[in-house]
Structure formats: C-alpha cells, structure tokens
C-alpha cells in the first residue's frame, strides 16, 4: 500500500488525534473566556427577576384555575391544574431569551453596516469601532441598548491595551448567535492573515443583512397565522363557557361519570394543537 493510499484511509477513518486535541483546546479556551467575562451579559441565558417570576407564575395559575373550574367544576382538581402554572416561567424564559437574541441580531446588522461604511471611508479599525457607537446612538436613543453597551465595552478594552480580536471573540461567544460568531471568525482570520479587511467586512455585512431581512419577512408573513392560531385555541374554551352559562343542562353529563375523562382528553388535545401550531410556524432561516 502506497503512502497516498494510507493517508486516504486515515482520512476516511475520521479526524486525527491532533485535530481532536486542537478542537478540545479551542473549546477549553472558549469556556475560559466565558468564565473570565462572567460579569458581563451572557446572551445564552436569561434570568428572571423575582418580580417577573411571580408575575408570570400568578398570571398562569389564575388562568389555569379558571380553566380547571370551567372543565371540571371541582375546586381541588382546579387547584391541581393551577399548579401547572409554576412551569410557565420556564417556558416564558425561553421566549424572552429568543426575543432578546432577535433584537441583538437586528441591532448587530445596523452596527456591522456602520462599521463597513467607516472602514470604506479610510478610518482605522479602532476609530471605526468608536464611530459605530456614535452612529448607533443616533438610531437607538436609549444608552442601555444591548449593541451600544457591547461596542462601548469593546472600545474600552482596546483603550486598556487588550487586542481587538480578543474583545470581539468574547462578545461573539457571549452572544451565542451564529451570525455574530461567524463575523468574529472572519474578522480574526482576516486580521491575523493580513487580508483585505474592508472588502471582507463589506461582504460579511451584506450576507448578514440579507439573512436578517429574510428572517424579518418570514416573521411578518407568519405573524397573522400565529394570531389566528391563538384565536382558534381560545375559541373552544369560549364555546364551552358560553354553553355552560347559557344552557348548563346541555353540558351537565360532561361533569359526571366518564365526563371528566372526556374533558381531560379534550383539554390535552387543545394544548397539543396549540403547541404543534407554534412548532410549525417556528421557521428558522
């Protein structure tokens, strides 16, 4: 067997030990950076405040308690159903986390477009990052806007003698957003290899902008369907409430014998249909 055939056979067997060691080292470095910068915002996690946790829990428990009374006419079963409201903050946390990432992605699109324009105008990298903050303050008057705070942190680190590659990489790791991490990899590689940084950032900005624009168009198209799915999910409950308080004798058999079992099945089917509709309309680009 020739040396070429042996190399081909090794390649077919998967990554070498050296590649695995390099990947583990890179992962360890990323974890180390995340620990060092733990006092900054970690966009991969969302921590509910005590006020938010109590608000979401109590709101969900009240709604579920009323639904339990409507479906079972039994206060003890209604309390058991209401206890499920304690799981709602966890679900809401994921929703708030997703919204925060979407907001940061849109803000990053504006920042990268400003950065590309500044570099094309002949400014240095450091001055371009400072100019981005000024441009962002015109778009977002709130000084606590995520992207403004992050670029101010990057500029402060550069002023303190830290490399711009390290500052951008830390922001990308904390963002936990694919577009920002891809930009970080492209920027660091181009900066270290001496590539045409202006052209690379311009093309990267165009790609990211197109992707985010497509995401926003999809969200606009699906927004109406999401609203319709919520209406369809509430309508069965409204119909049961209308029948119960307008002609209670019509629903009386559903609260006796096997009636609660049928109501439980209907309630579960209603919850499953709502979950399935949200999954179908969760389109990712």
Automatic annotation (TrEMBL):
<keyword id="KW-0812">Transmembrane</keyword>
<feature type="domain" description="Type II secretion system protein GspF">
    <location>
        <begin position="112"/>
        <end position="242"/>
    </location>
</feature>
<feature type="transmembrane region" description="Helical">
    <location>
        <begin position="258"/>
        <end position="276"/>
    </location>
</feature>
<keyword id="KW-1003">Cell membrane</keyword>
<keyword id="KW-1133">Transmembrane helix</keyword>
<dbReference type="InterPro" id="IPR042094">
    <property type="entry name" value="T2SS_GspF_sf"/>
</dbReference>
<dbReference type="InterPro" id="IPR018076">
    <property type="entry name" value="T2SS_GspF_dom"/>
</dbReference>
<feature type="transmembrane region" description="Helical">
    <location>
        <begin position="53"/>
        <end position="69"/>
    </location>
</feature>
<dbReference type="Pfam" id="PF00482">
    <property type="entry name" value="T2SSF"/>
</dbReference>
<protein>
    <submittedName>
        <fullName>Type II secretion system F family protein</fullName>
    </submittedName>
</protein>
<feature type="transmembrane region" description="Helical">
    <location>
        <begin position="229"/>
        <end position="246"/>
    </location>
</feature>
<feature type="transmembrane region" description="Helical">
    <location>
        <begin position="75"/>
        <end position="91"/>
    </location>
</feature>
<keyword id="KW-0472">Membrane</keyword>
